[in-house]
User: What shape does this take?
Amino acid sequence: MGLITWSDDTFQIHYAGETIVLLPKEYALFQFLYTWKNRAFSRSDLLDRVWPLEEPTDRTVDDHIYRLRKKLQKWSHLLTIDTVRGVGYRLTRKEQQSLSPTVLNSDFSENIQKMLTTYHGMGMGAALQMLYANQQVLGFQMDSFYATYLRFVVGDFIWFIEDQATPKSDKLFYWFHLYHMTQLDSQKTIEVFEWAMRNLESMPATFQDEMKINAVGVYAHAQQWEQAQKQLLPAREVVDKVNSKGFHLFLQAEEAFLYLLMGQVDAAEEVIRRSDDILLTLPMQRELGSFTIARGLCLYHRQEIAKARRMVDEGLEVVRATKFVPHLIYAVQSILLFLKSFSYDAEWERKYRKMWTDLSDEYKFDYLQKKILAIISSPI
Assistant: This one.
């Protein structure tokens, strides 16, 4: 969520090396207000969002706001929780003053950029988030690509809908992904993908290349096997042109899942074996998690259900540990699509559907889909 980082399991929030410990409902209330920062909510609204299955009173909200204000006092230069007369409460995030990039030593700026690139490539989302959250403290300013990308990584998805300052061409790629990864009905994703492809030349060149690889997965999810296999050729041309190990793994992950959904387990395992050669020299954690999940799905095809469960769960935890929120959502989506397609494990399917529902509630999947569909119905 950008400036502040979150520990859901311990109800802690972090900024610039400082940690504040909250009670569970304080944490939920603050997270909601921070997600919808700069908007006013009535006490009734907050009761519905934070205490949906309970029957507290307006005083409950007031007491929690009082305690939050006390605990957040040392971060008053970052944000405040304000009383809005006649309405309720609003969290106001304050703009931070950064050093001008011209003040920075050129070697320092170059080293920061190398760190960003390395952390990005290795799938070290927590490290990226730490740099992003502490720009003011460390005295640097991320370039526009990483400033936008890090919002995506940490799950600040609402920003991509509500921000008016960033050029739309810089957000086309993200709009597609936000719809693709939050939509379980893969047929509906085709329409958004084809809209994005019609606007492909408006995107930065790197994103144009990625979209050609994404095409394999989009059609695979929709079980359009012929079209998905047809997309492998242009995707391979992109990978050969870019000559990046990361892009090779990206395409191999899409290809493996295509074969898994087609029921071609031998072909999927061969792709996974090729990925092992790259991961031995470049242990990218996101991709390691994705291919571990793929191995687990192969085990389902082999009817080794207990082993499959353990492998899939292990892979998902590797992905979760990277702190790349979109990759976590995609991983859960892929597992669900597979289990739904083959009905190998009703119990684990229910488990992952519950996980999907929790992610949907946390990151507002329905809201994102509705807004993106409105966007694609209007000219760019």
